[in-house]
UniProtKB/TrEMBL annotation:
Pathway: Porphyrin-containing compound metabolism; protoheme biosynthesis; protoheme from protoporphyrin-IX: step 1/1. Fe(2+) binds at H213, E294. SUPFAM superfamilies: Chelatase. The gene is hemH. InterPro entries: Ferrochelatase (IPR001015), Ferrochelatase_C (IPR033644), Ferrochelatase_N (IPR033659). GO terms for molecular function: ferrochelatase activity; metal ion binding. The keyword Cell membrane does not apply. It is found in: Cytoplasm. It comes from Pseudoteredinibacter isoporae. This is Ferrochelatase. GO terms for cellular component: cytoplasm. Its EC number is 4.98.1.1.
Length: 355
């Protein structure tokens, strides 16, 4: 009987444990140096979800042509955005984690939810965070990848990383996996609020460029819904803002390699727009939940130079939702919608807060 009482103890603790909320994002190197970029890029570019090339061929390309040279070039870019507190992506992600924890505590009471953060690549890892969840005896986990538009290279990759670690556990927790929110009304409302704040301060641009991270066109042709989800986000946001078709344009950035990627390309369109009579643009990146290298350096710096050198007169980048109150309120609502009803202390909707 003593043995049974002892082995039952973890189950009793699980009944009292908080529901774990696991936020996920892509990841970041630990430092803006070539030595730190090399293992990060190796892990990232070795993921078959990211690069769908025959493994043996890609192994040769990666080790002979990419890893010897790209880390040094990438390190120079990271140095331009690095802060005293480290990587902007990790810093903002930690702020989102803390703000969401405060929001859930305020609504449900302390101890009902515990918010964690894991990265697909680099640290904090899924392995580390799932170990922390096990220590707390949480047997109910809400997994929230912070990729609004589902994509195999991001959302599915997070699922792969999660399942890889769960395969090592004897006791697998109950899961809610949120695989995207590209058309969620509260997400669109948060984007709209962010843009209206900018328009009120800086004026409405001649054209709003809505830029998403690109993927190879072949992924779309094989059935990945990412492109369609991006287009729907743009359409819903434009409708919410009352924009006509001439007042906004969806584009795709950050292509890599020689194959065709989703078009139109952001940098090419920014180079063309001044010749077409568009001299004033604002750029938003709703596919990113937190600012990172692709927004702070590529969009805010590189593409700004491209547009102005091509004859543009006014260019501004509108930051991601980051830790803005509307964004955190939305994430809290998303957690509640996908929560475990038997553990909720309050049945009050979050819609009143978000609306």
């Amino acid at each position: 009987m003593a043995y049974l009482a002892e082995t039952a103890n973890p189950h009793q603790k699980a009944a009292q444990a908080p529901i774990a909320v696991l936020l996920c994002n892509l990841g970041t190197p630990e430092a803006p140096t070539a030595s730190a970029l090399r293992p990060y890029l190796k892990q990232f570019l070795s993921d078959p979800r990211v690069v769908e090339v025959p493994r043996l061929l890609w192994w040769v390309i990666l080790r002979l042509f990419i890893l010897p040279f790209r880390p040094r070039a990438s390190a120079k870019l990271y140095k331009q955005i690095w802060t005293e507190n480290g990587s902007p992506l990790l810093k903002i992600s930690r702020q989102q984690q803390s703000a969401l924890q405060d929001r859930l505590d305020a609504h449900f009471g302390a101890g009902q939810y515990q918010v964690h953060l894991a990265m697909n690549y680099g640290k904090p890892s899924f392995s580390d965070e799932l170990a922390e969840i096990r220590k707390q005896f949480s047997d109910q986990v809400i997994v929230l990848p912070l990729y609004p538009q589902y994509c195999g290279a991001t959302t599915a990759s997070a699922f792969d990383a999660l399942s890889k670690e769960l395969r090592k556990q004897r006791w697998v927790p109950s899961l809610r996996f949120i695989n995207g929110y590209h058309d969620h009304p509260f997400y669109i409302a948060a984007l709209k609020a962010s843009l209206l704040k900018d328009f009120e301060k800086n004026g409405q641009p001649q054209k709003l460029i809505i830029s998403y991270h690109g993927t190879p066109k072949s992924y779309l042709e094989k059935g990945d819904p990412y492109y369609c989800f991006c287009m729907k986000t743009s359409r819903l946001l434009a409708e919410a803002l009352g924009l006509s078709g001439e007042q906004y344009e969806s584009c795709f950035q950050s292509r890599f390699g020689k194959q065709e990627w989703l078009q139109p390309y952001t940098d090419i369109r920014l180079e063309q727009l001044p010749e077409e009579g568009t001299k004033d643009v604002a750029v938003i990146c709703p596919g990113f939940s937190a600012d990172c290298l692709e927004t702070l350096e590529e969009i805010a710096v590189e593409n700004r130079d491209t547009f102005l050198h091509a004859g543009g007169e006014s260019y501004r980048y509108i930051p991601c939702l980051n830790q803005e109150a509307e964004h955190i309120n939305f994430l809290a609502a998303l957690v509640q919608e996908n929560g475990f009803s038997e553990r909720r202390k309050s049945q009050n909707t979050m819609a009143v807060v978000v609306a």
